[in-house]
Specification:
Largest sheet: 4 strands, mixed
Order of helices and strands: EEEEEEEHEHHHH
CATH topology of the largest domain: Immunoglobulin-like
Number of helices: 5
Number of domains: 2
Number of strands: 8
Strand content: 25-35%
Strand order of the largest sheet: 4-1-7-8
Mean pLDDT: 81
CATH class of the largest domain: Mainly Beta
Helix content: 25-40%
């Protein structure tokens, strides 16, 4: 009669996990790849085991679990928005100053956690928030860029929008404007406005729930 237990890990079907891939390790032995909505179950001997998930460029998150004989330990994993921001910030500051970019925790069978405000986990939110770390970069050029283009992003956005708008109008009033000139000016104008608006939204977003 078998006394083996098992460990089942579910990558939660959350929006933030859509482009994430986690490699699953049990006691340093790789057991497959997890992506949003997928579960992996591994048979193992009863007792203590170390369960870990790894993701490229984001390190490892591990958890010690006790597997009962003929029983199953259920776990869930997901990326963390605040952790992803911290990981992105560290590329500028060269210092890790936040929570882990992924989580792994015990759950009851069939009782998956609810998704915490998925609309707050957009990639552009992570990108814009991580750029706030340029103020603490050891590189002078990055710090200057922050002071000019990010700290006063509204002023910079308005100035660049006016400049690109004038260029567009000047191009349109030429006798034979080229399609390329019109397209280029339009794209630059739209991009400058979009960056200003998205940065404002990212800065003033409600904070994500901590799991």
């Amino acid at each position: 009669m078998s006394t083996e237990g098992s460990i089942r890990v579910t990558c939660l079907p959350w929006k933030i996990n859509r482009y994430m891939r986690f490699r699953l390790f049990i006691d340093d032995s790789e057991n497959g790849l997890l992506r949003a909505g997928r579960s992996l179950e591994v048979r193992t001997q009863p007792g203590q085991h170390t369960v870990a998930i790894k993701s490229a460029g984001l390190g490892t998150f591990d958890l010690l679990v006790e597997v009962p004989a003929d029983g199953t330990v259920n776990l869930a994993c997901a990326a963390s928005s605040d952790g992803l921001v911290s990981a992105a910030r560290s590329k500028y500051t060269e210092v890790w100053d936040g929570p882990a970019p992924m989580n792994l925790w015990l759950i009851d069978e069939g009782n998956l956690p609810e998704e915490p405000a998925p609309e707050r986990e957009n990639w552009w939110v992570v990108t814009f928030l991580s750029q706030e770390a340029l103020a603490e970069s050891p590189v002078l050029l990055w710090r200057l860029f922050y002071r000019v283009a990010i700290r006063h992003y509204v002023v910079w956005g308005l100035i660049s929008s006016v400049v690109f708008g004038l260029i567009l109008f000047d191009t349109l009033y030429q006798s034979n404007p080229s399609a390329l000139s019109i397209s280029s000016s339009s794209v630059l104008l739209i991009a400058s406005i979009a960056v200003m608006v998205l940065r404002a939204v990212a800065r003033h977003r409600p904070r994500s729930l901590s799991l």
